[in-house]
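Lab notes, practical 5.
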Amino acid sequence: MRYWIGVIAVFANLAESLTSPIIVKGPSCQETNDGAVLVTADCVDSTFNTVIIDAQKDISTPIPHRRISGHFNGSKIDFNIYLPESEWKGRFFQLVYPLQNSTAEDAEIVFGAESGGYTNRVAGGGGYRADAAVAKLSRTIAMKYYEKPKSNIYGYIYGASGGSFVTAGAIENTLNVWQGGIPIVQAVPISDPNNFCLRALAGLTLRSQKDAIVNSVRPGTDTSPFVRLDAVGRQALREVTELGIPLDAFEDFEGIAGNRTDFLQTFRTMVIPTIESFDPSYFDDFWTKKGYLGTEKSKLGDFFRKLLYEYNATIQAVKVGDGGVPVAIKLNGVPPTPPEFGIQLIVKSKDGKSSLGTFTAQLDSRLKTAVIDLEQNSTVLALLTQGTQVNVNNRAWLAAATYHRHQVPTRDGFYAYDYLRDTDGQPKYPQREVLIGDTISFGASGGCSFNGNITTKVIVMDALQDFDALPWQATWYRAQVQKALGPRFNDNYRLHYVANADHFIDPVPQDQLTRIVAYNSAYQQHLRDLSVWVEKGQQPPDGTSFTVDNGQVKVPASAAQRKSIQPVVDLRVNGKERVTTKAGRRLPFSAHIEVPPKTGFVTSVEWDFDGTGKYIKGSLGTLQTVVDVKASHTYWKEGTYYPSVRVTSHRDGSTKDKFAQVANLGRMRVIVN
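Output from the prediction step:
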């Protein structure tokens, strides 16, 4: 910390702070045996040792605070430090994500202030090292601003999804920079691209049967989805769930395998190019070599070969857009029923013997056109002229959908992947020379080896409906930490699961609110628990009790057995989770709500009788940890409804605190004749 002391003098004069670089001097940060940089409180990271303060400004919204804006000289990484005028209690909070900008959301700033901290926000791209440099700088700035030159300032880093990679890098590769961290919906070295490939496999094999799957995983089901599928569907669903996609998450089929979550675009623009970059021969091997689904003699292999769409065409006309860049081409023909997604066009040489480049597009058989997808290689598009030959196919998409089979992890502990091993423990399928996930996770985290040797206290928070960061994978990292820390494990680590929550830190879409709760309130409470754990030595609530069965994380039904911090709610009509009634008949709903011991009180209850995500506030009596509430509703139209009740709990029972209102749902099925 002492090497940032020069900042104090710089900030004494605003004009100087706007023009003078802050050059940090001291011992250099050292590289670890794993190739990461170990950042300590006193070392200097040569990549981030020169800071330019661009501005400081007092701002009144969302709360009165001072904003310090700056950047690192010679880089595009900028940052903001938000210092609330009052209520500071000697800590800061820092949200991280590889692609974020440096502007904190209002909620971040207000939550930080109301939790006794200031807020740091660093643009992504510098891994944990840029974040660490700002964390250290911010301490000196805060001591000056709050006029507490000898303060011991505690720091807490947290991040979701890709931000969990950055957080993992920080909690393993820094010392006394942050005192606690929260990886949220934690990604691990096998997550990318494997988890995306599982989703693609589900989309290809299960789309025609999605209605049966959705119906059989909704509340009040009376049938297993495996019973309702054909042989190909059963095999595919078994594979993707054994490897970790939550079975219940298939209620959101379009989220898993469709465009509700931009999955199709992500698979096209990120996953396939990543495989092509790391392992270019894979796509040919898939269709030509033994051991790959493209040549496999099985019902699933036959299914994939029937999905293959390929033909040669000649460009008849090119439509250009702004800047003369082609946006669509007219072909001499498009065979009937082209795939809705996954089409790649290979530009051929004049003699047709070599490939000059590829691009992707959407086909229209009626108009005989290919509408070119955005963000294509302009050099390749420049080759498109009348008479150009192209090969049109979906080979890469089909092949990529089972790439996970050839990426069985070699590190110990990834037990769900035993599904892809034989009885001798050997992979069932040929393995590629490179394990892409290791490289991606190392780069995205800034150099994390995921050895579990954490240097801060850590609370991991995962979501049980997450089809991106699969829930069981967090248990692998838990085992890594347990192995590294030994008897110190329980004093430094917790794993919590949030039921009825998925992957996304963004607001839950309206049409998903009836089945999904936002998990932000849960990690807010975890951050508060983390600060008390670090600063006062008060143990946080126990992590979630769980078991893992065939790749599926299961939790107990009661709050006392489940533990963690989330309330548990059970919704019924006359004691049943599924009822059939006549239109116009009034139904009595009852919800039993429990808060895990010593984690708070029920603070709200809301009802969504139609299952549309539109809730109405229900009545609630005095603050209690166990509550039974009732309501009634009449359905006037025939149909099947999935009503839900949404509840929240708060540690202190506050109904005024906008933060840390931990939510959960209870749901059921009502059939109206």
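Observations recorded by the TA: The two ends are 70 Å apart (CA to CA). The chain has four domains: 2-178, 194-300+401-420, 309-392, 457-672.
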